[in-house]
Design brief:
10% of the residues lie in helices and 39% in strands. It is mostly beta strands. A 5-stranded mixed beta barrel has the order 1-3-4-6-5. It is globular, with a radius of gyration of 22 Å.
Length: 147
Amino acid sequence: MNKVILMGRLTRDPEMRQTPSGVSLCGFSIAVNRRFAKEGQQTADFINCTAWRQTAEFICKYFHKGSMIAVVGNLQSRSWENQEGKKQYATDVVVDEAYFTGSKTESGTIGEHGEYSSPQPKSNNGFGDIDNMGFQAIDGSEDDLPF
């Protein structure tokens, strides 16, 4: 099985290209924090990713350098000879799915008109607008509980 799931920040703006036959292709890299690091230090891996077709167009439209992104895909290795005749190797993640992570301002995503959208404010109780959810407030004494 070859499946990769990563979450991190884009290290540069995605680059959109097209094949000679007109298929969209997007290249980008993400910085993914390692789970374990030396005390007081955060270590990241920088992973090259490639997306195709609608996924490529989605990423290029809504993500930019610094945006948080989650991707699902597979590893693909390739090799070639450079100009000196030396064999070169690369491993990329071929992205099948891409997701927003965190709030819009946290992920660094921008709207279609270039503006940041802030998340909806929460009420002080952390449960959103309870009055519109059909719940009744109780004073906390056990005598008021319906069971």
